[in-house]
Amino acid sequence: MAKATSDPSLAAADLILSGKAPAGLHVDGKLNLAGKSKLQQLPAGLTCYELNASQASLESLPADLSVECVLELEGCSKLQSLPANLKVGTLNIANCTNITELPEGLDVWFLNASGCTKLTHFPRRANIARGSLNVNGCRSLVALPDYLTELGTLDIGNCPQLTALPPRLNISSWIEIAGSGLTELPAQLQHVGIRWRGVLIDQITAFSPEKLNAKKVLAERNAERRRVMIERMGFERFMHEADARRLDTDRDPGGLRELLQVPMKGDEDIVCLSVNCPSTGRHYLLRVPPTMKSCHQAAAWIAGFDDPKLYKPIKET
Amino acid sequence: MSFREFEYADGKSFKFWKIELQDSDVVTQYGRIGSAGQETRKNFASPEKAQKEYDKLVAEKLGKGYFEKSTTAAAPKPSAAPTPSTDKDAKTPAKSTAVAAPAGIREFEYADGKSFKFWKVELKGTIVATQYGRIGSAGQETQKDFGSPEKAQKEYDKLVAEKLGKGYVEKSAGGTAPASTAAPAQAAAATSSSGELSPMFFSTTRSSNFEPLSTFIGERVADFRQKKSIKGKSVVRVRVSYDDEDDDEDGGEPNFGNRLSAFLASDAAPATKGLILGAYDLEGGCSGGGAYDEIVKCKDRLPNLKALFLGDIVQEECEISWIHQSDVSGMLQAFPQLEMLRIRGVDGLAISSPQHSQLRALAIESGGLPVSVISQICRGKFPELEYLELWLGTPNYNGDCRVNDLQPLLKGTLFPKLKYLGLRNAEIVDDIAAVIVTSPIVDQLEILDLSLGNISDVGGNALLHLESKTNLKRLDLHHHYISKPVQKKLKQLPFPVDLSDAKTVDEDDEDEGFSGRFISVSE
Questions:
Q1: Is B431 part of the contact surface with chain A (CB cutoff 8 Å)?
Q2: What does the pLDDT read at residue B73?
Q3: Chain A from 47 to 86: CB within 8 A of any B CB
Q4: ipTM of the complex
Q5: Which of A49, A6, A52 has the alpha carbon at shortest distance from A28?
């Protein structure tokens, strides 16, 4: 029975690919043109419920394109612009690396513009509300527009130039911030969930990692969260504060070498080799597998030797 | 309707108000309940203007908390609990009880696939009296003395909130509940006065799919057998089951197709208001396309059909993901008077022509609802739809719907009469919570049902943004993974929140994503 609904849209897809589609083509359901790398343009006046043209070679879209629910254009790396006043429930332009700006009058609930590395700014006038906004990896983006007032979720991860949020923005669920330039949350967002590469963390871990200490980290039962806390705190400081157990010591040309271990509840132990560079004298803490028993074994593993007996360096520098 | 009657009671007053439209005249009558009251008559330039005034006055009274007297039962009881009276009248004991007692009675009803019951509570000074039982029966009574009116009031409020939280529906509210509990169950159910199904019956199964229905649209389900009379029954199920005796055919095994044909040809068919299709064979096979074609062919045999349940098949017979369905558009077309359609299982399901001018309730139970079906519903034309229940399930069983696929529905313009929205058994429930709180659809709903899913604190916290939605009468989250602190915050919302059946995950096992948090029904 599914055939009855998909046949007309399959026929429409073939017609569009042949380049003979008439203007004003209407497709009742989903039009699937994903992965059609030869597809360079869509017919004028095309209307459909859902359109997937991901990975296609589109450079632009017809000005009068009308898609009701979902418009997928992920990975359309040649796409430069979108039609003005584009209105659709969901717009996915992830990894459209040639897009520099979004159209004036854009009206969407859900916008995924992640990986649009050339995107520099938002339109002066647009309606992006209620759903989610994802600009993860939009490295050229310096600000979000003030008209953003209501979002379900917001992902500004890996947007190092984004240092502030719009003043009236409310987010009902969570904000992803790993790798963003954000240093604090505005007053109205004090209760929003904060994510660090998908892991829910608290405000201290997010914005005041200097206030973290090893005791707090070790008291955290969730292993994912604990890993983020150690990352935010800094590995060296954590190992120093956590009273690591010394599994082994010896000497190498850099001086004293130590194999340190901190047991982790519900996760593998943290074991690392503490060494000094013989040339520069700088200290390094290198994480090694938890099965390491001696400094030599750990150094061998770092050099790529699973069997420490085979690791006989002539000279370490 | 040109005549309506209202009542109002609180700690101080106990009064009635009636209004009647007589051509260009609006006549009102008002006074203390029990007295004749006063009458006013106002003439307007045209019947249209009079109608306008009539509507305005009615809206005004409803806005003030007046309750409309239902046409069937005795005076409906106001929902406002009495506040300890301070006026002079109340100091005379006789009047005090006369005023406070009726104001303190509230009456509730509850129906699902297993039960059909009422619960009444009355505040009598320091005593809280409750009465409960099956609808149609007299039920049992309890009384408890709390020593002080304040303590009794507190208990009364607590009990009422508890019942509302469990999904009980107040009888006086909206005038939609069926007739008086004193009447036999039959009269209280689908067959009552207006002939329209009570919205109370739309939510047929409260939680899961582990037992076949014993009642449907408020009536006992009768299993059709060729050699057994089901005279007088109007809710019929056709199925084959393990407890079948070989009394159907001439010594042969019971056969679904033969049984369905026999039912359609029988005297029971024309009287049938609710039809249920159950298991198709004893090897885990399920009803589907062939049966629908047969029913559509014989549509004239079912002139009174109002409610259909396709797939009353329980786990023991067949996993929900194996239940085979097909395109139900033909059924929708064949029965223009149908008010309710419930479907269990979505393998092969389609609604290729999603439209019906009378359908009020649509429910689809699944362990994974394909986005293709969602998009058909999102392009649907169901102008009368009040109730929409979708079990979204998990991607592991084809539930590939994402929250943005629901956007046409969340916009709120699709089904203007929708009062109940159930996005149940969903693995994406946290994502739904993030978006639904600011979606226009919520402003028209009375009940938002996100139960049976794996909602966590992430979703729970997002739902706290519903605090301004006073139109909501209930939020159902039962079967959830919300922590105690967030549960506590949710209970502060201005409407009852069902937080029963709390599940827990061992934090040590919790990894990114859903691991450890499961929806109620998948396979």
A1: yes
A2: 35
A3: 49-50, 68-70
A4: 0.86
A5: A49
